[in-house]
Specification:
Strand content: under 5%
Shape: flat
Largest sheet: none
Number of strands: 0
Radius of gyration: 27 Å
CATH topology of the domain at 40-103: Arc Repressor Mutant, subunit A
C-alpha cells in the first residue's frame, strides 16, 4: 500500500527544514597549526638539529657539539625534545621510503 511517509523515507519529498539545513554556510576549514609555534629558536635551527640526529649516526651530545661549533648554544635535551616533537613523524616517513626503495 502506498503511503505519503514512503516518499519521505525514500527522500523524494523534502520539507523546508531540509533546505534550511543545506543552505547553512560551511564552517571555516581547520588550518594546520605550526609545529614551531612555541619554540624560541628559529625553525631553520630546529630542522637542522633534528635532521642531523635522524640522518647521521650521531648521539644527542654530538649534535649539541656540532651546533655549538656553529655558534648555536643549545642543550642535548632540547634536541631530544625537538626530535620527539618533530622528528618522529618525519623519520617514520623516511623509513617507509627506504622500505619501498628496497622492493
Amino acid at each position: 500500500m502506498y503511503h505519503q511517509n514512503d516518499e519521505y523515507r525514500k527522500g523524494l519529498v523534502r520539507g523546508p527544514w531540509v533546505e534550511a539545513r543545506r543552505e547553512a554556510p560551511d564552517p571555516a576549514p581547520m588550518t594546520k597549526r605550526s609545529p614551531f609555534k612555541y619554540f624560541k629558536t628559529s625553525p631553520e635551527i630546529t630542522r637542522l638539529a633534528v635532521m642531523m640526529y635522524i640522518r647521521f649516526p650521531l648521539s644527542l651530545r654530538n649534535v649539541e657539539d656540532l651546533l655549538h661549533e656553529r655558534g648555536i648554544a643549545i642543550c642535548h635535551e632540547t634536541v631530544r625534545f625537538w626530535w620527539h616533537r618533530l622528528g618522529l613523524p618525519s623519520s617514520a616517513k623516511e623509513g617507509q621510503k627506504a622500505k619501498e626503495n628496497l622492493s
